[in-house]
Design brief:
The chain has 439 residues and is α+β, with helices and mostly antiparallel strands. It has a domain of 242 residues: Nucleoside Triphosphate Pyrophosphohydrolase, CATH 3.90.79. Helices cover 24% and strands 22% of the residues. The strands form 2 sheets. Strands 1, 2, 3, 7, 8, 9, 10, 11, 12 and 13 form a 10-stranded mixed sheet that branches. A 3-stranded mixed sheet has the order 4-6-5. Strand 5 and strand 6 form a beta hairpin.
């Protein structure tokens, strides 16, 4: 493959919008119309309909499962699942070789670390349970992950009838749902909302919503917008304990928000027996552990992303005490996976504003009020939902950045507070069933 081909393909793929991808996949998997499963879609502000690439069902969405030990019950399989075998076709080998060339020419970082592989899942009784196997990242990156680039190239060249890899790996809905029979990896993606005090420059008290532009050095969703934290579900040093989704979310917060490069296994490996030992935690994470009533982590939805067949758990992280932002807001920074962070306000309504500034920039606003906590936000928040979207995992196109504003809302305050409506219900979320795939 010529280097110019690789350099052309990467930016051209980024021009393909979410709606085009979703429409193509809905047409390919037309058999979902006769199934209890459905492709997630919603009508949002102004009557605009948004369709995602996420396959879900009724009991996988509109949930609020706490990511705590009593509710977070994933466990490794007692017996190691049979390895997936099969001869590589010429198309598979060609795509795998192209992927390796792109990694080399574009300077993409790839480290072959273990990943959890989903074998079964159950979201009943307000708990997440199921079994997980293990695989290696390279096995995924050179097989199932190639479905994304094949689809984007087909859309760019207007040749959707020619999808030879998808015809082998995920030819129909039955193969998508056959979790033990295929390689199904994925992760958790969360919208992080942090309470902020009123500001003389910014205006009234609000929640700051953090979004990253993913670096060109990442293998998945490069240069796209994504909520943060997000990451593949993978073990660190304890395969059983690390199977909990909450553990992955806490690790990603440390790595992607609080600057802990020592737990980034693409850089340092797993040299410590307990990377998340209390004595090793960052100062912001230690504060959250010492004040467990100030932070809430929930799973708000589950689905299978048809782009590459990944499982995706949508999440919500809410820090209700604005003292956290006062003390640690200046310590929040992206890692190498991020080309930049942007902040949005829960008060934003105008899409032009929501497309907005990089982290650190301020918008003019009304005069500041006194700093205060809003305990009623946490108590009332169980009635609704506001989430971030994962794309392979974690990303939306830049042209869809205005969708972040559709989650915007108001914090309870003395003047005009929604009060018992709760934080998530006032974030102007899409209707039930849309969860994490619309930011």
């Amino acid at each position: 493959m010529q280097p110019t081909c690789t350099r052309w393909a990467n930016p051209t793929r980024r021009e393909i919008g979410r709606q085009g991808i979703a429409t193509a996949l809905a047409a390919y998997y037309g058999d979902h119309m006769a199934s209890s499963h459905r492709i997630c879609s919603a009508t949002v502000d102004g009557g605009r309909e948004i369709t995602t690439s996420v396959l879900t069902q009724a009991d996988w969405v509109d949930i609020a499962i706490p990511l705590a030990t009593d509710h977070d019950r994933f466990a490794p399989a007692m017996a190691h699942p049979a390895a997936l075998t099969g001869a590589l076709t010429d198309d598979m080998a060609s795509r795998a070789a192209q992927r390796l060339a792109e990694i080399r020419l574009l300077g993409i970082r790839l480290v072959d670390m273990p990943l959890y592989r989903l074998l079964s899942v159950d979201l009943g009784n307000n708990a997440i349970s199921g079994t997980l196997g293990l695989t290696q990242f390279a096995d995924y990156a050179l097989t199932a992950d190639l479905l994304e680039s094949e689809l984007l190239d087909a859309l760019a060249w207007d040749c959707l009838a020619d999808l030879p890899l998808r015809d082998v790996y995920l030819p129909d809905l039955a193969s998508v749902l056959d979790l033990p029979g295929r390689l199904c990896v994925g992760g958790v993606v969360a919208l992080c909302a942090i309470a902020r005090p009123a500001s003389r420059l910014r205006g009234p008290a609000d929640y700051v919503l953090l979004v990253q532009e993913r670096s060109g050095s990442v293998l998945n969703a490069a240069r796209r917008l994504s909520v943060i934290p997000n990451g593949f579900h993978q073990p660190m040093t304890d395969v059983r304990a690390d199977a909990q989704l909450g553990g992955t979310l806490r690790r990603e917060m440390e790595e992607e928000l609080f600057g802990r490069a020592d737990i980034d296994n693409t850089m340092s490996g797993d040299r410590w027996a307990d990377p998340m030992h209390p004595s090793r935690l960052s100062e912001p994470m230690r504060w959250l552990d010492e004040h467990p009533d100030r932070c809430r982590m929930e799973c708000t939805g589950f689905g299978i992303n048809l782009v590459s067949g990944n499982f995706e758990f949508a999440g919500l992280v809410v820090i209700d005490d604005e003292e956290f932002w006062h003390q640690y807001g200046s310590m929040i920074e992206g890692n190498w996976e991020s080309a930049g962070l942007r902040q949005f306000s829960s008060l934003d309504r105008d899409p032009a504003v929501a497309a907005g500034p990089k982290l650190g920039a301020r918008r003019p606003g009304r005069r500041a009020g006194p700093r205060r906590r809003h305990p009623d936000v946490r108590a009332a928040g169980r009635s609704g939902r506001a989430d971030g979207r994962a794309a392979e995992p974690g990303g939306v196109t830049g042209s869809d950045s205005d969708a972040v504003s559709r989650h915007a809302g108001r914090r309870p305050s003395e003047a005009g507070a929604p009060g018992a409506a709760g934080f998530r219900s006032v974030l102007r979320r899409p209707p039930p069933g849309t969860t994490a795939w619309f930011s």
